[in-house]
């Protein structure tokens, strides 16, 4: 598995509240993006706790779970518990939370876990497919037919999320798996990227540069404003492995 990642503070923020992780083993790879939110440095705290918790849980428990979807779900539920408990201990951290989107890659299968509006995409010769559904107010409007997908891209409340890790004591985690083929690419990103690039633009750049597209994607988002932190992880399944 070829993997590259980067997180960037962007052009306007004083703090990077995104957190990116990669974990590469002989038998699997694990990638994740967390986009924190909260006052002061609370978002940074939430994203780092959530991301490092899921990485540690997967590393320590990978061989204990036959059902890898359950592994991902339990890791993210634990991350929610840790972020929430931390927020209850310190006044300046109350209400903090984070998105969390992760992917466990094993041979010909990718297991995805998702909470919030960071996204996972599958990119291959067929095209680009958004694997995750945003847990956001605007996505709910799209689902009930109030607005179109095109209108959603520029909606003033497009960053209002309806589900996050750590905000409440319990969280619902979306999990699923897909089959992947040689040279298939999984891309996970925070909304700092998708606020500035269409999925067609992402597809064009990634198709050309593969995992090396990480820098170009972030540079383009920054050139268009970069008003948010920007994080991208790209994993490409090796040909023949």
Key structural traits:
Phosphatase 2c, domain 1; six-stranded antiparallel β-sheet; 241 residues; single chain; 11 strands
Walkthrough of the structure:
Helix 6 packs antiparallel against helix 7. With 241 residues, the chain is α+β, with helices and mostly antiparallel strands. It has one domain: PPM-type phosphatase domain (Phosphatase 2c, domain 1). The strands form 2 sheets. Strands 2, 3, 4, 5, 6 and 9 form a 6-stranded antiparallel sheet that branches. It has a 5-stranded antiparallel sheet with strand order 1-11-10-7-8. A hairpin with a 2-residue loop joins strand 5 and strand 6. One of its GO terms (molecular function) is protein serine/threonine phosphatase activity. This is PPM-type phosphatase domain-containing protein. InterPro entries: PP2C, PPM-type-like_dom_sf, PPM-type_phosphatase-like_dom. It holds the Pfam family PP2C_2.
Distance between the termini: 8 Å
**Overall pLDDT:** 93
Relevant CATH superfamily: PPM-type phosphatase domain
In the CATH hierarchy, what is the architecture at level 2? Answer: 4-Layer Sandwich
Overall tally of domains: 1
Radius of gyration: 17 Å
Content-based structural category = alpha+beta
- Low-confidence stretches are none
Quick recap of the structure?
With 241 residues, the chain is α+β, with helices and mostly antiparallel strands. The protein has one domain (2-236): Phosphatase 2c, domain 1. It has helices at 42-61, 68-89, 137-143, 149-153, 191-194, 199-209, 213-223; strands at 2-8, 18-24, 29-37, 97-98, 100-106, 109-115, 119-124, 127-130, 174-179, 185-189, 230-236.
